[in-house]
Amino acid sequence: METAHLHFKIYKPFGMLSQFMSNDAKEARKKRFLSDLNDFPEGTMPVGRLDEKSEGLLLLTTDGKLSDLINRSGIEKEYYVQLDGDITKAAIERLEAGVEIGFSGKKYQTKPCKVQSLAQPPLLPEPDKKIRLARHRPTSWISITITEGKFRQVRKMTAAVGFPTLRLVRVRIADIHLKELLPGTVAAIPQLPLDTQIVSYASNEYEVK
Question: I need a labelling partner for 99 at 20 to 30 A (CA). Which of 1, 113, 138, 148 fits?
Answer without folding.
Answer: 138
